[in-house]
Amino acid sequence: MNEILTKERLIEARERISNQVKRTPILTSSSINKILNANIFFKCENFQKVGAFKFRGASNAVLSLNEKEMINGVATHSSGNHAAALALAAKMKNIPAYIVMPKTAPEIKKKAVAGYGAKIIFCEPTLKAREETLNNVIQETNAIFIHPYDNYDVIAGQSTAAQEIFAELNDLDFIIAPVGGGGLLSGTALSTKYFSPKTKIIGAEPKEADDAFKSFNDKKIYPSINPKTICDGLLTQLSEKTFKIITNTVDEILTAKEETIIEAMKLIWERMKIIIEPSSAVTLAIMIENQEKFLNKKIAIILSGGNVDLKNLPFK
Fold first, then answer.
1. Higher confidence at residue 1 or residue 98?
2. 7-53+151-312 has which CATH code?
3. CA distance 79 to 66
């Protein structure tokens, strides 16, 4: 298990952020259950503030800072949901937020970050450019860097979505979370080990961005090189912290093809009448591609967010 992220620390995170985050609903769809011959529970983080689970981790990280640390504000690099989440968490504490964003980030996400009052610094869409620009910002401002996922307070915050699932549902056979940088999957896996140890933990990843799948199976971190997927929230690679937690706790990482991710996204829009982004749909997509594995099982899947550029949908 993780000697730093103890069960007590996860519970503390849940209590710390309980007045700030939404307890999101768990929905079901009898028609999707029928199509896949499984009993599926959808944890709707698309209804979270900022439209994504990321608000949990950002809130816990900001609220864990002491007064002295908060004075100069917080900073990060992010293409979207973490940027908006940190901007809002900082605004709620009335401290500055400096967000380094690639120029290519979706317009909806740029608007959201600006709307929460953060200062955006644009850079080229490479990890090197993001990190160099962020270092310059931190040197100028003395802001505290809140990494999108390589941060134990962020991971503890992300664990609270699964904690809420286990408070409502017993005897789950599987819990499925998407994996990009691994913050949500790490937090979900630790919650599962502590609160529902018989439940198997599965990470879901696009086949065209399968660095976590390879890293998990070969037990070494592979970089995310030129991923070509519609899941813009899953383009990053695992970090040292998330890799260690995932390799020690997760049962399996499965990948899904782009066309299956689109099919899953459409299915949720059409059958459940809710908007999710492609990164959320990958969880249902791996079920579509591995139906025998999940036959007649009781499964919770985390719908990680709903921030979609409606001018750029992957289906007509």
1. 98
2. 3.40.50.1100
3. 27
